[in-house]
Amino acid sequence: MGLQQFEDRLERLVEGTLARPFRSNLQPVEIGRRLTREMDLHRRVGVRGLIAPNAFAVTLARPDVERFSNFLDALVRELAEAAREHARNEQYIFVGPIDVQILEGPRLRAGRFDVLAEVIEGADGLVPAELVLPGGGRVQIEADAVVIGRMPECTVVLSDPNVSRRHAEVVRVEDNFVVRDLGSTNGTKLNGVPLAEGYLRSGDAITVGSTTLVFEML
Question: What is the pTM of this model?
Fold first, then answer.
């Protein structure tokens, strides 16, 4: 996607309102560029490859916090997505979930900002992974199985009538991940191929009923 698309998505989301009042002030894409630069500066060599920071504290001046106030949640989501995309492009890995926080720095002047990037391990040191839902939401895969189905007690609850009550699950097997069909009526597909059980790779598409979820290792 890249930083240009990051900027384009955010501007479309707020119907272009950022471009006008911020023409001579802080632009959201500047924060994205700094965030990815901090990832490059603070990467380090790990057992499985280059580890990049996954926790970011973005400190803005009070006037900029006020100007962004209607779009802070969207900005946080887009910055997190920019970090994921940069990691994919550079083949970085994360050791914990991505966390972006927007803070206010009372001593900063308008247009100035700081980004603190850190490597923070996830709970129990588990390799971070998520399921990306059709609407863009994300469900972290932790120690317990992620159950997909129509029952309210499922981890991922879908209203798809073609999905069984307990349709499939995604589980950890050490540092690997497995998708299993739970005896569903319409079956489970991995990248379009029906299966009972299979190992997952980042970017794989899991289809249950008429709904497709994407598996991502962070």
Answer: 0.67
d(CA 50, CA 36): 14
DSSP string, 114-171: EEEEE----GGGPPPEEEEPTTS-EEE--SS-EEEESSTTSSEE---TTS-TT-EEEE
pLDDT tens digits along 110-131 = 889 999 999 988 776 667 888 9
Give residue-wise pLDDT tens across range 163-206: 999 999 999 887 789 999 999 999 999 999 999 999 998 889 99
Q: How far is CA 40 from CA 83, 188, 212, in A?
A: 11, 38, 33
